[in-house]
Specification:
Elements lengths: L1 H20 L20 H5 L7 H8 L1 E9 L15 E4 L8 E9 H12 L2 E6 L5 E7 L1
Parallel strand pairs: 2-5
Antiparallel strand pairs: 1-3, 4-5
C-alpha cells in the first residue's frame, strides 16, 4: 500500500510540474501590450541585452518610476531614464501605435524589452575596438 501511495504522489507531482511548464504566454492587449502585464518569463528577460560589462549591466538593472504617454519610436530613447546612453537606430517604424506605459518600479532592461516587444524591434549591443559596448543598436 505504501508503494502505491508513493507512486501516486510522484505521478501527481510530475503532472503538476509538466502542466505548470505548459502555460501559454500572455498576449498583448489592444494597445500593444503596454499595460503592465508581463511580456515574458524571467529567463527571457535575463537573456535580453546580456553583457559582461559590469557598469552597463548595473545601469540596465537600475530601477525607476516611469510614466510614458503617446511615445513614438523616434521619441522614446530620448526620455528619462533611457537617455543616458547612445542608441544606433535604423528603420524605426513610423505609423505605429504609441507606447503608453506607467510603472512605479521597472528596470531599464525591462523597459527596453517592453519597447522592443511593443514595436517589434531588435535590440543588441554595438561594441568599440576594445570590445566594450558602445551603443544599443535598435533596428525596426
Amino acid at each position: 500500500m505504501n508503494f502505491m501511495k508513493a507512486w501516486l504522489l510522484t505521478s501527481l507531482f510530475a503532472v503538476a510540474l509538466i502542466g505548470s511548464a505548459c502555460t501559454a504566454p500572455k498576449k498583448p492587449d489592444a494597445t500593444g501590450g503596454a499595460t503592465g502585464a508581463a511580456t515574458g518569463d524571467a529567463h527571457s528577460l535575463a537573456s535580453f541585452l546580456v553583457t559582461d560589462y559590469a557598469p552597463l549591466a548595473k545601469w540596465l538593472d537600475e530601477r525607476f518610476e516611469v510614466d510614458y504617454k503617446h511615445m513614438t519610436p523616434q521619441l522614446i530613447f530620448d526620455q528619462v531614464p533611457l537617455n543616458d546612453i547612445y542608441y544606433e537606430t535604423s528603420n524605426l517604424p513610423s505609423a505605429v501605435a504609441p507606447f503608453n506605459y506607467s510603472s512605479k518600479d521597472i528596470s531599464r532592461r525591462e523597459l527596453l524589452k517592453r519597447i522592443a516587444h511593443h514595436w517589434n524591434l531588435n535590440m543588441s549591443f554595438a561594441s568599440d575596438a576594445s570590445g566594450k559596448p558602445s551603443a544599443v543598436k535598435v533596428e525596426g
